[in-house]
Every structure is written in C-alpha cells, then in structure tokens.
Design goal:
Rossmann fold, 3 domains, 19 helices, transferase, alpha/beta, nine-stranded mixed beta sheet
Length: about 675
C-alpha cells in the first residue's frame, strides 16, 4: 500500500514518482495492457521507420519490447522522474543504441515542432486526469497542445487507457475539435493474467490540418473482435459505446467467479447494422449437482417460439435449465430482422462469445454442447411489416410451432416478446389418390395471398376463457342458436370476434377498434371479414361506450374487453387504466343487459394496482368471478350487474359442457385440446 499516492493529485507529482520507482526497484511496472495485447494495434499504427515519442514511460518494458521485436527502433522515452530515467538508462544500456531515455516534463517539451510521427502514451493521461478540477483540466490541455505541436501532420497519438468516461470524453472532444480523426480500439484481454477487470482501450488520434469552418467530425470505434471500424455520430455515442463494452466486461468477470442469483439478459448486436442479433439469458441452477459434463450448455430457441412461456419468462427458463440438467444454461433467442445459416452457422458465430459467460469451475478445453428443440432453429417467415401512428412498428409473421403446426402472429415491435394476435394456419392436405406436389424451389413471396386461417381454433388461452364466460348468460340452456348481442373492444387479428360470430349463429357482433391499421391487418392476413352480423367501428372504445350509454342503454348480452395499453411505463399492459376507472365502468354497466356478462382480460404485474382495479370492479359489479390463466400473467374477470345470477363452479362446468356439445355439432369442427368446462370450473368468486 505504501506505493499508492495519498491523493489522486500526487499522480502528477515528480516527487511521488521518484519515491514510487525507488521503492519498487528494478521490477517493471505495467499499469495495464501487456505488449502481446497491444501488439496488433501497435503494428497497425507504428511503422518501423517512424520516430516515436513515449510520454511518461516509467519503467515499463513496452519500449524495449517494441525495439526488440522490430516494431520500431527510433524511440525517445521521457518521464518526470529522475530515478526511473537513470534506472532505464542503466537497464537498456548499449543494447538498444537507437533508443534513448530523457528526463523531461511532457507539459514543457524541448523538442522542435513536427518532430515525431507517433506519440505513445500508456496510462499517462489516466494518471494525470484524475479529476475534472480546473487546474487538472488546464494541465491536460497543456499536455494535448504539446503532443499536437511535436507531431507531424498525419502523425498518430496512441493513448492506452482504461477509458473512464471523463478521460475519454476530454480526449475525444479536444482532438475532434482540432480536426483530427479519432478512433478507439478495444484491446483483446489476456484472460486470467489480466490485472484489471475493465478492458483496455487505445485511442488513436490522427493529426490533420484544421479546416476553417465546421468540418464534420470523424469518430470511430473498433471492437476487439473485428478490424473494420464503426462510425459514430458524436462523442456522446462514442463514450456510450465504450461504456457498453466496459459493462459487458464487468458482467463476464462476475459470471466467471460466482453463480448468478438472478437471470442475466444481454443483447449481442449485428456488426454491420448495430441491431440486436441474439438475446442471451444466463440461467444458473443451484440444484444441479456439478459433474464434468454438466457445467455449461447453450440452448438455441427456435425462431418464433421465443414468446412461449418456457422460453420467454424467467420461471419458464428456470424450469428449462433444471430439466436440461446443466449448472448454467444460456438461452439464445434469434431476432426476426436477422438471417441465420442454420444451427452450425449459429454455433460457429457464438462459440467464442458464449465462452465469456462460462461458469466458475468449468474444466479446461471442455466441450460445451449446443441444444435446441428437435435440433433445428425453427422457421419464421415475415409476411408483412408496417408502422401505425397508433400502434407503432408491427410485423405479421408465420412460424412453425411445436410439431407440424404453423401459426400466423401479429407482433407489436415496441413489445416484441408479446404475441398480440395468433391464428393457426390450415395446411392443405392432398385428396385421396392425389400425389403430393413436389416442393417448389422458389420461396413464396410475402406479397402472395396468405394461407387459409383455421377459424375454428383459438390459439390464446385467455380467448378460450373469455368464450367460456358466455356460460354465465341467463336462460336455462346457453345454446349457440340463442340471439345474442356482443360488443368486443379491441380487434387485433380478429380471432375472438370471428369465433363468436362463426359458432353462435344468431349472434350480432360489434367490434370497436381505435387503430384503422389493425382492421386492414385482420382483413388481409387473418381472414377477418364484416357482414350483416359483424360490424367494426373504428373509434376510441372510451368514446364509443360513453356515446352508447347516453343513447342506447341495456342493449348487450356480453361485452368483452381485450385491448392493450400503449403506455409501457404503467404496470398494467391490458387494458389501459382509463378503461377500469369507476365512471367508465358504470357506463359499461349501463349498456349491459341486467342478466348480461362483462368479460375483461386483465394483465397487471403491479400488485397494488391490480388490487385497486379489483376493488373498483367490485364497487360497480355485485358479482365478480376471476379465472387465472396458468403460466401467464393474464387473468380473466367475469362481471355481472346482478348478484341473483350467481352460480358455483360446478354449475358453470355443467352449463359449459352443454354449450360445448352444441358447438361440436356437425359442420362445426372443434379442436379437442381445450374444453370449456375446464375454463370455468377453475373460476373463483370474489
């Protein structure tokens, strides 16, 4: 500890450095960045015939190694410590005749103007710029001015640094304003030998003559895994890019030393576009007993299945990791904007990067398995992309589900891990005696008409529960032939209103949708259509209900709310908060028949907000049932305006079986994977 300064200001003191090097003796002191790590960058920017100045040389071996390996020989080393200069003169002696050590202050150098092609600084700027006090910044300005003076036009100032934000920002702003080209290289680490957890960077500032006026700044970053630099628009963006890499290095260091108690998520971005290419989640399973072969594995989530509970939730991924039997599992989600060359291509691309996330205790040269469902990366075909003023960017895509089924999905990209609407696609089957057509080599164009939609199938569990809620309607037998007036607020892909329309032959369905783009999407891509018994009103649901309450009360047997919130800052994503405020709910009650049912899809992660919503609903509707959707946040609420219609779950189950039996009549295909009685027998009465 005696070697450390009492205050950061002593880093700029010659007396401190004299004492430091006398106490340390002949042992070389490398702040950071050993020669093997720096060598690729030095070879790139230092030519053998260059005249090189090393400022603040200390007793680092860097100059000697550059000389001995032929990087260059004409090197002048300067330092303010007389002790270290004499030490280095003795150490180098006559073995390196073209290299010299000179006692000199870099703030006041004796060299003539434009004397060097390269100025090399290894940690000196970091040592000087310990704070942002006025006196410190004045010294740094003086240092930069002297470096600029002694460098030739076209010369390079190479600064090896840990790139603290204030240090990088100062260097970038100073030299870019002088018209220099600024490029930041991340230096490859040396694994366990690296003294610092933070990565090392080299700022490469190339001197150009300053052009009068406002010349554009040229700022670039070159990550360690690639030679091609990436252009950034501002010093703030450059500092942010460096900070991202520092945070990643800290994360990798922590993961290599201790198991992670909470799941860690990070994006790996495409080198060309900068857009996310892979989303990684690191999941540790403390219950798994470690052995040689079960330390670490990578799981590639098939395209289009990243929204499923098993892959898209923390609890699901925890279950996946435990059942896979590995101490640490990294799940990898593939992004829809990217192209992938199969499992082998993904493995080749990720192998080096995922090893940085390896757990402690992983045996050396251990083979890390890449896992997936069925050994492939799934199928995803984007059919349509567009932007809505109300819903933002969205995509319609076809994905392969578990097994041979294909599904069409509507995804809002502001919340890309949530499926907004989903429908199963009908796969054409050949007639008896008809041969299967050979696969066309030509891929289908997204502009082609969409494949047929299976309107008999409700993909979403909460939609199944909402339909089952119709069992609460009055009358001895809730048969599909009954004349019903149904209001659905929120169209999406149209699956819910379509199902009600098709299976309840006398139902009149009114749909309210605020976004006209969604009506176009539902019609073009999800088989939705309007008719005598199905009408869509493009309007704000709040305004539409308020108008009905004033003009035509008590007209609907069932009202269904399946509308998402555009405000992601609220802990409730469905419905928007205004839809569950007491004055509006009273208007909903006004347009509902006395024996009717109001069905609400509630998605709320805020426990206090959820309790507040339930309390408000109880104030307005005397009879309230709730049905939690297993494995999801969704909760379906069935609200009735009169307590006289109360039925226990057993009775509801019996009514559901009657309803389902009628729905299974000939000509009405029905998927056997769900049963209405199962949906309502699990309700709770609040």
């Amino acid at each position: 500890m005696a070697l450390l300064p009492r205050s950061p200001a002593e880093f700029g003191s010659a007396r401190y450095w004299d004492r430091f090097f006398r106490q340390r003796g002949q042992r070389p002191f490398e702040w950071y960045g050993a020669f093997p790590e720096l060598c690729p960058v030095l070879h790139k920017y230092v030519r053998p015939r260059d005249k090189v100045l090393v400022v603040g040389c200390g007793n680092s071996e860097l100059s000697e190694q550059m000389y001995d390996t032929g990087v260059c020989e004409d090197i002048v080393n300067i330092d303010v410590s007389d002790a270290v200069i004499r030490q280095m003169q003795e150490r180098s002696g006559s073995r390196r005749p073209k290299m010299s050590y000179v006692l000199m202050d870099m703030l006041q150098m004796d060299f003539p103007d434009a004397h060097f092609q390269v100025v090399l600084d290894k940690g000196t700027l970091d040592a000087l710029l310990t704070d942002e006090e006025e006196a410190t910044l004045a010294k740094v300005d003086q240092m930069f001015a002297e470096i600029s003076r002694v460098l030739q036009v076209g010369g390079r100032y190479l600064c090896v640094s840990l790139a603290q934000a204030h240090v990088l920002k100062k260097a970038v702003e100073y030299f870019s304003q002088e018209g220099w080209v600024v490029r930041v290289h991340q230096v490859a680490g040396s694994g366990d030998k690296q003294q610092f957890v933070l990565p090392v960077f080299v700022y490469v500032m190339t001197k150009f003559r300053k052009i009068p006026g406002s010349a554009p700044q040229i700022l670039e970053i070159c990550p360690e895994e690639q030679d091609k630099p990436m252009r950034v628009e501002s010093s703030e963006q450059l500092v942010a890019a460096v900070k991202d890499r520092q945070h990643y290095a800290l994360l990798c260091s922590q993961l290599s030393k201790t198991p992670c108690r909470e799941q860690v998520s990070l994006d790996l971005c495409d080198k060309e576009s900068g857009k996310p290419r892979y989303t990684l989640n690191v999941v540790d399973s403390p219950s798994v007993k470690p052995s040689r072969d079960n330390h670490f594995a990578i799981f590639i989530i098939p395209q289009g299945r990243e929204t499923e509970w098993l892959f898209g939730t923390e609890e699901g991924r925890r279950q996946l990791a435990s059942s896979a039997g590995f101490g640490r599992l990294v799940t990898v989600a593939l992004h829809r904007e990217q192209h992938y060359e199969g499992m082998a291509g993904i493995q080749a691309e990720l192998s080096g990067k995922v090893m940085e996330l390896a757990p402690p205790g992983l045996p050396a040269r251990q083979q890390v398995p890449f896992l997936s469902v069925g050994g492939d990366i799934g199928v995803r075909t984007v059919r349509h992309c567009d932007t809505s003023p109300l819903s933002g960017e969205y995509v319609v895509e076809d994905v392969k589900g578990d097994g041979a089924s294909y599904f069409r999905r509507l995804i809002f990209l502001r919340n890309r891990n949530v499926v907004q609407s989903e429908a199963r696609l009908l796969v054409p089957t050949p007639l008896p005696g008809q041969k299967k057509r050979r696969k066309d080599k030509k891929k289908p164009s997204p502009a082609e008409p969409p494949a047929a939609i299976d309107k008999s199938y409700l993909c979403c569990e909460h939609h199944k529960a909402m339909v089952a809620g119709l069992c609460l309607l009055g009358g001895p037998d809730p048969l599909p032939g009954a004349s019903l007036a149904v209001l659905v607020v929120g169209l999406g892909g149209g699956s819910l209103p379509l199902f009600v329309h098709d299976y309840f032959s006398q139902a009149r369905v009114a749909v309210v949708e605020i976004d006209p783009s969604m009506l176009e999407v539902a019609t073009r891509w999800f088989g939705f259509s309007q008719g005598d018994r199905m009408q869509v009103h493009v309007s704000d649901g709040l305004d539409y209900v308020a108008k009905l309450a004033a003009e035509a009360p008590a007209q609907y047997d069932a009202i269904m709310f399946d509308v998402d919130s555009k405000d992601l800052t609220v802990g409730m994503s469905c419905p928007p908060p205004a839809f569950v405020e007491k004055p509006f709910l009273q208007k909903v009650k006004t347009i509902l028949k006395p024996e009717g049912v109001f069905v609400l899809n509630l998605v709320c992660r805020d426990a206090r907000l959820k309790e507040s919503v339930l309390a408000t609903l109880r104030d307005v509707f005397p009879l309230l049932y709730t049905r939690h959707i297993e494995g999801e946040v969704n909760e379906i609420l069935f609200c009735q305006p009169s307590p006289e219609g109360r039925r226990d779950p057993t009775e509801l189950g019996a009514r559901a079986r009657v309803l389902e039996g009628a729905l299974r009549e000939p000509g009405h295909p029905w998927d056997s994977s769900y049963v209405l009685a199962d949906m309502v027998q699990a309700v709770k009465i609040l």
